[in-house]
Amino acid sequence: SAPCQTSATRSWELPYLGRSLSLLVALPSDRKTPLSSLETQLTPRAVATWDTGLRRTKMDVFLPRFKMQNRFNLRLVLPSMGVSDAFNPMAADFTGISAEEGLYVSDAFHEARIEVTEDGTKAAAATAMVLLKRSRAPVFKADRPFFFLLRQVSTGSVLFMGRVVNPAEQAP
User: pLDDT tens digits for 112-157?
Assistant: First the structure.
């Protein structure tokens, strides 16, 4: 898709083969604006604004390779979302899935990985291929810090989200 330019942000979306997933990349319009200034504005409404400003076009895209991995302790997060009984040996009730009494969740972790290369994007166990065609077209160059969102096209659900702070360090 052609880039969407707002006063603060320049965004671009790359649909993947099969069009069920897409990679949305956003960076500050002004090279002097730090990525952190956009972080405070990263909301569903901002993403929708980037989305509606996109139009389909052929273009040259320069995106660095990057790989990210993170592990989260869900035991620290889930209670703040109202999921606490599962971790309490006295309150947990798993009789709907097991006949064994006294079961509770002692630990819960979530691990996420994403890798973007010339061959495509690998996110967890899923692989999507990127097809780029060189042409005399507009250029989108992610040569400074940027955000990315890997999204499911049909629902708009964000499957992975992250930021690349120093694209030059990501190159092989």
Answer: 777 777 666 665 433 333 333 344 556 677 778 888 888 888 888 8
| pLDDT for 89 beyond 50 | yes
Which amino acid is residue 41, in one-letter code?
A: Q
Q: Among candidates 42, 68, 56, which has minimal Cα distance to 123? A: 68
State the DSSP code for 129: -
Does the pTM exceed 0.85?
no
Number of structural domains (the chain) is: 2
Residue 58 belongs to what domain range? Answer: 4-65+118-170
Contact 103, 96 (CB under 8 A): no
Q: What are phi and psi of 106, to 5 degrees?
A: -90, -35
Specify whether 50 is located in the same domain as 79. no
**In whole angstroms, what is the distance from residue 97 CA to residue 118 CA?**
44
Mean per-residue pLDDT over the chain, rounded: 76
Q: Do both 131 and 164 map to the same domain? A: yes
- Contact between 147 and 161 under an 8 Å Cβ cutoff? The reply is yes
- Letter string b/e over residues 133-162, b meaning 16 or more CB atoms within 10 A of that residue's CB: eeeeeeebebebbbbbbbbeeeeeeeebeb
Pair (124, 162) in one structural domain = yes
